Amino acid sequence: MKKLINNPESVVADALAGLAAAHPTLRVDVGGRVVWRADAPRPGKVALVSGGGSGHEPLHAGFVGHGMLDAACPGDVFTSPVPDQVVAATRRVDGGAGVLHVIKNYTGDVMNFEMAAELCAEEGMTVSSVVVDDDVAVQDSLYTAGRRGTGATLFVEKIAGALAESGAPLAQTTRIAGQVAARSRSFGIALTSCAVPAAGKPTFDLPETEVELGIGIHGEPGRSRAPLAPARELATVAMDAIHGDLPLAGDLLVMVNGMGGTPLIELYVAFAEVAAYVKAKGARVSRSLVGNYVTSLDMQGFSVTVCRLDADLTRLWDAPVQTPALRWGR
Amino acid sequence: MDLAFFTAWIQETIRVVSVNRDRLTRLDAAIGDADHGTNLDRGFTSVREALAESPQDNPGQLLTLVGTTLVRRVGGASGPLYGTLFRQLGKSLGDAREVSLGDLATAFATAIDAVRRLGKAAEGDKTMVDALAPASRALADAAREGLRPDDALERAAVAAAEGAKATIPLQARKGRASYLGPRSVGHEDPGAASAALLVSALRP
């Protein structure tokens, strides 16, 4: 598998060096693997810190900036960051009003952030957390690791980030982050696997004629396979799963997200089908996002994330944001 | 069993993790995200560096350093879980210079309880616990029966290997493999496989 890299071991560091060179509004500790806003810490502002494995770019480092995250800590490819990184990021951006950790629901991410939160508390920092678990492909029960955190993470970071930027206190920021997570659902479909740089070859074999339904964002296989079908049918599979879990109603924020290897033209094909589905259910696409935001390296495929908006959430979604990967209104 | 014994264990673990790096990653590619071998190998490479930098006085100190290094360097779920296993072993052994089989068995039982609590996993969930728990029981039984340490460790290694193989028909209920539901059946759990390697490295 061809890769545009120097060598597999230095992929994360080399990409962070590029991020730093491209975005002077960010500060990057390449060795310590922390990315933070150049204007942090902002006294009196609640700070948002997120992190996770690398390979999902622009998530999370691409969302560091005005109106969104204050810091991000990228782990190795598909591997959660270690507690030291989270503590260092939290320390960098703590402006005295508390720090919200945005965590995707994976066993490793939750453990490392929990360990970090304990260390932060020992240092006298006030930290709260929200765990995002929006993926309806995973059956949630007492006997599983629970649903995965995927596309809704972007919604949580944007909306809670906007509220924090407006000067809201930690408790309120944490509450709205939880609300966004609770009102959001996702479903993903892969047309191909992806190749982790260190492994050098695709994680799983997927024949030309088949797709994986219910994938996560780590190139892990999904829950089942199905024959390749037109975009209309694949979008319907995703939307049926979402609608079956959280009925579509009212004003919706809808994201059609590429997994990294799907051209934008195909994402728009999918979005047309998703929008038609929403309309047929009597709901409305009030706000939308189409593009590669929460990716899985070079995987071809897409995910749909839907959030049921209300007036407050819409206002916060519309609020100005200025980050490498998401910017408007400023 | 003294500091030299435990140092040999860690050195052997570093070696077997490196030798089995690709196998562990392959197992993880089947039901996870294809990085278990790479992550553990990176962690134990850091352990080797950490040990070279600061020589240890006793087994407890050594194992605590191993655990702390893994937490700080591995990430994912295996960093905190293996980190906790070693840190708890170190804590249980305290500053004793010589460790009896009974002490080791007790320390193992305590450490595995800590891993279970952190991972919220029980035996049969298709995780590292499926290799660690039988190994811990084998050690405890051997200590009670008054076996020599090398026989006891041999039994523990066999129990761990059997426990890892026994994860093949199971459906995962914890960790990333649980997302596959019934499709996780038919594959050996990579965490159980690495745990069995770790126990097998424990030889006099």
Characterization of this structure:
The complex is a heterodimer of chains A (330) and B (204). In chain A, β10, α7 (264-280) and β11 form a beta-alpha-beta unit. Chain A has a six-stranded mixed β-sheet with strand order 1-2-4-3-5-6, with helices on both faces. In chain A, α4 runs antiparallel to α5 (170-182) and α6 crosses α7. Chain A is of the alpha/beta class and 330 residues long. Chain A has eight helices and 14 strands. Chain B has 204 residues and is mostly helical. In chain B, 69% of the residues lie in helices and 0% in strands. In chain B, α3 packs across α4, α4 runs antiparallel to α5 (78-93) and α7 (129-145) packs antiparallel against α8. Chain B is globular. The interface between A and B is large, with 37 and 34 residues.
Q: What is the element layout, followed by pairings?
A:
The complex is a heterodimer of chains A (330) and B (204).
Chain A lengths: L10 H12 L3 E4 L4 E4 L9 E8 L16 E7 L5 H11 L5 E6 L2 H16 L4 E6 L19 H14 L4 H13 L1 E7 L19 E4 L10 E4 L3 H15 L5 E8 L5 H17 L3 E8 L9 E8 L2 H8 L2 E2 L4 E2 L2
Parallel strand pairs in A: 3-4, 3-5, 5-6, 10-11
Antiparallel strand pairs in A: 1-2, 2-4, 7-8, 7-12, 8-9, 10-12, 13-14
Helix pairs in contact in A: 2-3, 4-5, 6-7
Chain B lengths: L2 H17 L1 H11 L4 H18 L5 H15 L4 H16 L7 H19 L9 H17 L3 H17 L24 H11 L4
Helix pairs in contact in B: 1-3, 1-4, 2-3, 2-9, 3-4, 4-5, 5-6, 6-7, 7-8, 7-9, 8-9
Number of helices of chain B: 9
Low-confidence stretches of chain B: none
Helical amount of chain A: 25-40%
Give the beta-strand count of chain B.
0
Estimate the global geometry of chain B from the Cα principal axes.
Answer: globular
Shape assignment of chain A: globular
Say how many strands of chain A there are. 14
Through-space gap between termini of chain B = 8 Å
Average pLDDT of chain B works out at 94
